[in-house]
Amino acid sequence: MAKPLKNTKNTPLCSVLIFDFYSNENQNLFKNSKISKIRRYKERRNNATTQRRYKETKIQRKGEKLMSIKEH
Fold this sequence. Notes:
- With 72 residues, the chain is mainly α.
- The protein has 2 domains: 1-32, no CATH class; 34-72.
- The chain is built from 3 helices and 2 strands, in the order ββααα.
- Strands 1-2 form a two-stranded antiparallel ribbon.
């Protein structure tokens, strides 16, 4: 899974473990990991249809707020 470097004396901690992304088991691990979930969420969020839907719901909520203010 993670491969330690040969020279670990002078290397910073972050580079001691090298992650092999290309093996299948690690790709599956990465798919389910938090980082990839966040990345997928960001990709979905940047989608044009999602943006439009978000704007529509935002406007709708704004309208609902205004209506509720008028009722009181």
